[in-house]
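Subject: complex prediction, re-run

Hi both,

The earlier run crashed halfway through, so I resubmitted it with identical inputs.
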Amino acid sequence: MILRRCYKATVNESETITEHNGFCSVRSRSETGEFRVLGRAPHRTELSLVRFENVGLRYGLGPEILRDLNFQIPAHSFQFLTGPSGAGKTSLLKLLFLSLRPTRGLVNLFGHDVSLLGKDEIADLRKRIGIVLQDFRLLDHMTTYENVALPFRVTGREESSYRKEVIDLLKWVGLGERMDALPPILSGGEKQRAAIARAVISRPHLLLADEPTGNVDPTLGRRLLRLFIELNKSGTAVIIATHDITLMDQYEARRLVLHQGRLHIYE
Amino acid sequence: MNRTDQQHGPLVDLGRERPQVPARARNLSPIVPRASIAGRALVAVVAIMTFLASITTGTVLLVSASAAEWQSEVASEITIQVRPAPGRDIDRDAAAVAEAIRAQAGIVEVRPFTRQESAKLLEPWLGSGLSLDDLPVPRVIVARVQPGTTLDLAALRRRVTQAAPSASVDDHRAWIERMRSMTGATVIAGLGILALVIVATIISVSFATRGAMAANRPIVEVLHFVGAGDRYIANRFLRHFLRLGLQGGVIGCGVAMLVFGFSESIAGWFSGTPVGDQFAALLGTFSLRPSGYLALAAQAVLIAAITAWASRRTLFATLDDID
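This time it finished cleanly. Structure:
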């Protein structure tokens, strides 16, 4: 139970996690057998996949487009990220996906301070994040199957070890008979589903979706939302960036509202 | 994510109207499409560069080998001239000098040129049928030095001047020095051209790599999204460029080898012409030794490696920019 509440990304064999008065402590046993407290934090912090503290972002010498962001994304949570066009939703998603570095503040992802990470470590962290972009970003020279299998392929895994999994997921999102089709001949909705399948195939801890219903009709939008909800129920924390109020009204979830570079949270 | 419960059909009502046909899907496409890399142009550039580099190297090798041969031949000979002097019999002086030279340690053969042979030597300048009796023509004695020995030239000069005061010894040192400096200049020029060719190759390959990366930027970004590291992405591109570099290298080097292989026939076309004769005198035949061909092959591999290295360097720089 303690481990479940006091989440931590990595714990060595010599380290133990204990709970006391609503705090989680990570303790290490020294060679003499004595315990030493390495770190102590409230439950909520330890459960968070993402933690932003006083984060600011500016492009070049321009004005700060994101200011004093303080928030956490708990594991298994579902939230909408919203705000008017140009409010910085995509920039915030890029910060979460490590495509951008903050100009100030602390970004902690899966227990790692991202400012201390090298390129290889960032690539490793990205494997734990799925991202669905507004323009899908499918590779046109690859079939739907190959696009969805790409996250496994880049890790060098044998195809036989994941082929069934990819086919099952493609069937699951309704692309069972479009596996060998190239993206240019897929419809907008099919491309969207393929992009989502690629984002979730490696079972990410965190799924980021940028305007995932922006290119589809309302009916398909509702269906895609149901897909995200199901993904969330199976354990993935989901952040959907959207300015579609109708979509948000369909599901009761935490809302992160960006306005004039600041973030307002409605639980 | 627990997906086992959804094995029997799609979880959400998406595309249910279509039959769920089992796929024959496989990973068949390369990560980087081959057609998106400007391959032919790069192969042509590398082939031309390799050809130029091979011709330069081959020519430098030919000049060096011929010059070394000449030098060793000339250095193993010394020439003694006995000039006519008033009151002295030149034939007797020549015989005395020849005897003196024979007595010198390290001399293996002494060959005095007869009057007729001396006339033959002068024929190109003075014409035939000339009587040398009226001209103060010196007599020439050629002596061969035992290979590997250092001749005591001072002692030899003393002996020779004792035998005939008008005699002088020429060990061809000045000529050898000129030959050596000419060969050195040729080798340096060749190395300079080679360096220029290699720099041009690096620049061409860097531009080609940058172009290919720019054309494939969306692919690189997607690979980053799915968690591929720079090393993985760079290796996908590197294979292409290494293959292209090797293709270009083999073509350029192969053509250069053919040129040297058929060089004797080519030289034959120019034989009899002043240029052809000068080249033949300087370089002998144009044919390379087996070690020369090996050097050209090694150079082709080197250029392919340089292509891969330049490509890799540009790849990582571009990946840093994209990230």
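Confidence is low (pLDDT under 50) at residues 1-13, 38-46 of chain A.

- K.
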